[in-house]
Amino acid sequence: MASSRADPYRALFHKLAMLNSLSAEELDGIKSLPLRPQRFRAGATIISSGQLVSECCLLVEGYACRHKLASDGGRQIVSFHVAGDILDIQHLLFEKADHNVQTITDAEVVFFPMRDLRRLIEERPEVGKALWRDCLVDASIFREWVLNVGRRDARMRIAHMLCEFAAKCEAAGLGSPAQFTLPMTQEDIGDATGLTSVHVNRMLRQLADEGLIARAGREIRIADWPRMQEAADFQPDYLHLAA
Fold first, then answer.
1. Which residue of 13, 73, 110, 232 pairs with 159 in a disulfide if CB–CB is 3.0 to 4.6 A?
2. PANTHER family attached here (predicted)?
3. Residues 112-142: tens digit of each pLDDT
4. 67: which strand partners?
5. pLDDT value of position 152
6. Domain residues of the chain, as ranges?
7. pLDDT reported for residue 77
8. What are phi and psi of 74, to 5 degrees?
């Protein structure tokens, strides 16, 4: 995996530009934060539930997820993340992690001290506003995921997850509904949608048989985006990609 350390904030700045207009001085303030880069293999834990957190982490390259574990060890994935996502912005105010952050591919992450980020926010309130909006978008996505798992049938859950992932990849410049790579396994998809891997595979085959998607390994093409959105009950407003 090629390194992105020469410009670790490129994807973040692209995302923040959609959420809040920041001046060159404010962007320079973010760039001035001290960085600690680290690379992780697929399946590695970046943050563990119960951990005391003193650094904030930014996903620079690769894919990750946030998840909770039940007492029997069952995993519920609550979000998937792409480059440019800050994986734990809530730790600006909550020092102890209440969930796990795990890579789903090889990934590059940079960490920066919370105290430095808090200081920057005090000096540059517009940076704080942008990060607050980013946190609110996460909350909006969580609400949609509760609806997806709680009220949609299996076919619709899978279709909705694919639509959301395609939309996020397109916004991050990582693909489009016309062609994107699905980095998660069928087990990951099952843990995100409350389904077994067998059921996930069946639903993916059904969507392909209906002509909604085409698959070649992990390469996915949504053949009919409007019809796929309708099948998924997908309305992208909750992503606030054009806010």
1. 232
2. CRP FAMILY TRANSCRIPTIONAL REGULATORY PROTEIN, DNA-BINDING TRANSCRIPTIONAL DUAL REGULATOR CRP
3. 999 999 999 999 999 999 999 999 999 999 9
4. 77, 100
5. 97
6. 10-145, 154-239
7. 98
8. -65, 140
- Considering the segment(s) 10-145 as one domain, its CATH architecture is Sandwich (2.60)
How far is residue 235's CA from residue 188's CA, in Å, rounded to a whole number?
23
DSSP 162-189: HHHHHHHHHHTTS-BTTBEE--S-HHHH
Residue 136 in tokens = 């609110």
Tokens of 31: 């760039």
Classify burial at 192, counting beta carbons within 10 Å of its beta carbon; exposed 0-12, middle 13-18, buried 19 or more.
buried
With tokens 């978008």, the residue in question is 137
Place of tokens 């085409």: 214
Geometric angle at alpha carbon 217, from 211 and 221, rounded to 5°:
40
What CA–CA distance (Å, rounded) separates 183 from 120?
34
* CATH number of this structure's domain 154-239: 1.10.10.10
Q: DSSP state, 78?
A: E
How many CA atoms does the CB half-sphere of 192 hold within 13 Å? 27
Dihedral over Cα of 56, 62, 65, 69: its sign: negative
Q: Which residue has the higher pLDDT, 93 or 144?
A: 144
Q: What is the 3-state secondary structure (H, E, C) of 121-163?
A: HHHCHHHHHHHHHHHHHHHHHHHHHHHHHHHCCHHHHHHHHHH
| Phi, psi values for residue 215, rounded to 5° | -120, 140
* Sign (positive or negative) of CA dihedral 242, 84, 52, 95: negative
Least confident of 10-24, 145-159, 163-177: 10-24
- Give 188-240 as a 3 state SS string: HHHHHHCCCHHHHHHHHHHHHHCCCEEEECCEEEECCHHHHHHHHCCCHHHHC
